[in-house]
Design a protein that fits this description.
Blueprint (H helix, E strand, L loop, with lengths): L1 H8 L7 E6 L4 H10 L8 E6 L2 H14 L4 E6 L5 H16 L6 E6 L17 H25 L7 E7 L12 H20 L3 E7 L6 H9 L3 H12 L6 H14 L6 E4 L4
Parallel strand pairs: 1-2, 1-4, 2-3, 4-5, 5-6, 6-7
Length: about 270
C-alpha cells in the first residue's frame, strides 16, 4: 500500500496541458521548464520560446529525452519584433489546433530585459530606444497572451492560467532603473485588468526574488546608481541571492495548489 501511495504522489499534477514559456533558454525560465515538465501528463505540449537557438535546442533535447511522452517544441524568436511575435503565435496555434482533450492552458510570460540601467530618467530622450524596450517587455506579453487566449475561448474542462514573472520593481522605484521598473509595473497592471475582465482565467504575477543570474550580474556592475551597485554586490557576497530552481519550485507549487487570488502579485519571500 505504501509503494502504491508513493507512486500516486509522483503522478503528474497539472494534467494534459499546453504550456508556453517565454525566456526559456536560461536562468529562471530554464529552471521553470525543467521543474514543470515532470508535472505534465503524457501527451502534453511544451513550447520553449527565446532568442537563443542553441540553448533552446539543448533544453528541448534534454526534456524530450527525460520525458518521452511530452511534446517539446523550441521556438527561436525575437519577441521585440512583430515578426518574432507572429512566428511564435503561428507555431503555437498550429500545434494546438489538433490537440485534443487538453485540461490546462498555461502561459508563462517570463521573457524580459533590464534596459539601459546606466542612465538616469533624464537621459531617456530617444523615443525609439524606449519604444524598443516596451515592445519586448510589455507589448509582446500582451499580444501573445491575448492572441492565445482568444484562440481558446471558454472550452469546457479547460483550465486557463496566465503567469506574469514580475519583480519587486513593479511596486518600488529604484534609481537608474527607469525602464525596468516602469515595464514591470505596466505588466502587473496589465494582467490585473485581464483578471478583472476574464474571471474564467487564473492570473498571477510572481516576483521570483533577487535571482542569481546573468541579469543580476549585469545589474550589479552596470547600474548607474552606485548605492544600488553596492547593495547588489553585498547580496552576492553574503549569499543572499536566490537560486533559480528554488524560486521556480515555489511558483510550480503555487500553480499546483491553485489557491491564489486571480490577479494577485505574489512575492517569493511571502510564500
Amino acid at each position: 500500500m505504501e509503494a502504491r501511495d508513493t507512486a500516486q504522489q509522483r503522478q503528474p499534477s497539472l494534467g494534459k496541458a499546453a504550456c508556453i514559456i517565454t525566456g526559456a533558454s536560461r536562468g529562471f525560465g530554464r529552471s521553470l521548464a525543467l521543474l514543470l515538465a515532470p508535472q505534465l501528463e503524457a501527451g502534453s505540449i511544451l513550447f520553449l520560446v527565446a532568442r537563443s537557438r542553441g540553448a533552446l535546442a539543448e533544453l528541448e533535447a534534454k526534456l524530450q529525452c527525460s520525458f518521452p511522452g511530452l511534446k517539446v517544441n523550441s521556438v527561436p524568436a525575437d519577441l521585440g519584433t512583430e515578426d518574432g511575435v507572429q512566428l511564435v503565435l503561428q507555431v503555437v496555434l498550429h500545434k494546438l489546433l489538433g490537440a485534443a482533450d487538453l485540461q490546462r492552458l498555461l502561459i508563462i510570460n517570463n521573457a524580459g530585459s533590464l534596459g539601459d540601467i546606466s542612465k538616469s530618467f533624464v537621459d531617456f530622450t530617444s523615443a525609439a530606444e524606449v519604444n524598443s524596450y516596451f515592445a519586448f517587455n510589455v507589448t509582446s506579453a500582451l499580444c501573445l497572451t491575448s492572441s492565445i487566449l482568444k484562440a481558446f475561448p471558454g472550452q469546457p474542462g479547460l483550465c486557463k492560467t496566465v503567469v506574469n514573472v514580475s519583480s519587486l520593481c513593479a511596486l518600488k522605484p529604484f534609481k537608474s532603473w527607469t525602464l525596468y521598473c516602469t515595464g514591470k509595473a505596466s505588466r502587473d497592471m496589465m494582467f490585473q485588468v485581464l483578471a478583472l475582465e476574464e474571471p474564467g482565467v487564473r492570473v498571477i504575477s510572481y516576483a521570483p526574488g533577487p535571482l542569481d543570474t546573468e541579469m543580476q550580474q549585469l545589474a550589479r556592475t552596470k547600474s548607474g546608481d552606485p548605492e544600488i551597485r553596492r547593495q547588489l554586490l553585498n547580496m552576492k557576497n553574503s549569499g543572499q541571492l536566490v537560486d533559480c530552481s528554488l524560486s521556480a519550485q515555489k511558483l510550480v507549487s503555487l500553480l499546483l495548489e491553485d489557491m491564489f487570488d486571480s490577479g494577485a502579485h505574489v512575492d517569493f519571500y511571502a510564500i
